[in-house]
Amino acid sequence: MKTVKSLVLAGLLALMPALALNGSALAQDNSVAAAPAADNAAAPAESASNATAPTAEAAPAAPKVAAPPRMKPTEGIGMPMPGEITLQKQFSPTGHTARWLHDVLLLPLITIISVFVLILMLYVMWRYRRSANPVPSKTSHNTLIEVIWTVLPVVILLIVAVPSIGLLADQYKPAPKDALTVKVTGYQWYWGYEYPDNAIPEYVSNLLPEDKAKANGEPYLLAPDNRLVLPAGRPVKLIITGADVIHAFAVPSLWLKMDAVPGRLNEKSVFIEKPGVYYGQCSELCGARHGFMPIAIEALPPEQFDQWVLSQGGSLKGAAEKTAQAAPAATEKKI
Ligand SMILES: [Cu+2]
Question: Which of 292, 205, 178, 190 is nearest to 245 (CA)?
Fold first, then answer.
């Protein structure tokens, strides 16, 4: 009897983990099933904000200013190229420093050191192999060599540290007082852009479908429908945040990358040297469609940027003082 009882007990114990696993699997299934509901909940918000975009675009009829035509991207500028192994061509002051640091200082230094160590190791392996060198040397100290291999790395690190720390400081330098403020919000899975200085409410930027991207001559997966329009040659202050999870706003050719963290306003100052279209992507793994929330900055000459602001029903900076008072309320609501 006892053996039967213990067998049953043992059987039950053996099955327990499987049952528990099933339970958790069920729980996971439930969470997966719940996910689409959350998606659906987000979708109306998206379409609602999309719905506001056409009205903002339809509005130009009222101020009677036409938006500048959609700028065509230039091949090889503001986008990665096939076979490219270095950083993208840079169009901001910090970008130039960074590319110089990478191309002129770090890469040659890394290459020289790696090749030197490799040659040294190969030589030692060959020269001091057992057959050629049966009685090993018992030397354990050589002051000159020890001083050299301590001082030389210190000097190399100092040479790297000076421009490196300078670049780090430049990257976080706050924007000047007259900079144009633009708010960037990361959503699952699109971007929202708002211009508090120009009283332009938030509009949404989604992935451009493949056929439309091709028809436009734009790179698919890098091109969005609505671009972030910024002035070239004028300082810009980007206020970057996330609405749901952590995203990262990144445009390689402008040396621009900043995390978009929910509940936090991160600041990044940008100065775009040349008008053009500069592409980027969300650079923080943010969920299923992380790879499908591209970024495009359309940098316009200042007077064309002003024209764009007016075409969106906005007011030029400085004239927007009155409307700016209304803007903080809108920002608070969104965060
Ligand atoms: Cu993202």
Answer: 190
